[in-house]
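Good morning,

Attaching, inline, the backbone tokens for the sequence recovery test we're adding to the shared suite. The designed sequence is right after.
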């Protein structure tokens, strides 16, 4: 194992947030630095464990948005459901909810890619 590879592993060991892991990968990919199979697997494992926290954030945001929708519908103006939906979609909370959904989708895709990359590199090393 080269010093640079050991450094990569140590850097990733210190990162324990989904944002941190995704940013670490982004930096390595932008700099076109190869990533070893064991690091792909380690990152996928961490992301998989941390994904539950991201889902919790999404559920909290969905509840806030649903309550806002109900408040708009129950408001004294008696607006219809379609208009309440439009009003909710114009809020920052709705935007944050959509961003959280997109983040979860990116994490799930990153886990899939990590598994494939690790498998491909492992097969390459075995000579398949």
């Amino acid at each position: 194992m080269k010093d640079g590879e050991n450094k990569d592993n140590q850097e990733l060991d210190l990162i324990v947030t989904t944002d941190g892991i995704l940013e670490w990968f982004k930096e390595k990919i932008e700099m076109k630095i190869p990533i070893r199979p064991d690091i792909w697997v380690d990152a996928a494992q961490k992301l998989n464990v941390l994904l539950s926290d991201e889902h919790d954030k999404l559920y909290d945001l969905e509840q806030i948005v649903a309550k806002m929708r109900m408040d708009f519908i129950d408001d004294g103006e008696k607006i219809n459901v379609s208009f309440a939906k439009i009003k909710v979609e114009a809020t920052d909370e709705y935007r944050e909810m959509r961003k959280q959904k997109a983040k979860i989708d990116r994490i799930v895709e990153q886990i899939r890619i990590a598994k494939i990359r690790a498998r491909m590199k492992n097969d390459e090393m075995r000579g398949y």
